[in-house]
Amino acid sequence: MYLKTKSGRKIKLPTPEEERAIQAGIDADSDTYELSESELKQLKRVETDKEQITIRLSREVVKSFKDTGAGWQSRIDEALKEWLKMHDKAN
C-alpha cells in the first residue's frame, strides 16, 4: 500500500507484519513512549514567517556559511536582508 504526498511523491507503507515488528521495537525501548492526549495538546505548531524554497548558490558561498556552524542558513537570510537594506531604491 502506498501513501501519496501533496507533492505527488509515493511512500510505501509498512505491511501489518512490518508494523508489528516496528511496534515491538518501540515497546522494547525504555526511552520511548506514546504521548497522552494531554501531552499532544501541549505541543504547539511552530509558526514562521519564512518560506521554504530551493535556491542554487555557489559551493564557495555554501561552504563558507556552513563552516560557521549551526544556524548557517539563518545567517544567509540575514546577509540577504542586509543586502536589501543597502540596495533599497528609496534611500
Describe this structure as you would to a colleague.
With 91 residues, the chain is mainly alpha-helical. It has one domain (2-31, 50-86). Helix content is 46%, strand content 7%. The protein is built from four helices and two strands, in the order E-E-H-H-H-H. It has helices spanning 16-28, 37-42, 59-66, 72-86, and strands at residues 2-4, 10-12. Strands 1-2 form a two-stranded antiparallel sheet. A hairpin with a 5-residue loop joins strand 1 (2-4) and strand 2 (10-12). The chain starts with a strand and ends in a 5-residue tail after the last helix. The model has no long low-confidence stretch (mean pLDDT 90).
Essential attributes:
91 residues, mainly alpha, two-stranded antiparallel sheet
- Domains counted in the coordinates: how many? 1
How far the N terminus sits from the C terminus, by CA atoms, comes to 58 Å
Mean pLDDT: 90
Strand content: 5-15%
The tally of helices reads 4
- Helix percentage: 40-55%
Please state how the strands of the largest beta sheet are arranged side by side: 1-2
Structural class: mainly alpha
User: What kind of sheet is the major sheet?
Assistant: 2 strands, antiparallel
Secondary structure tally: strands: 2
Elements, N to C (H/E) = EEHHHH
Radius of gyration equals 22 Å
Shape: elongated
Low-confidence stretches: none
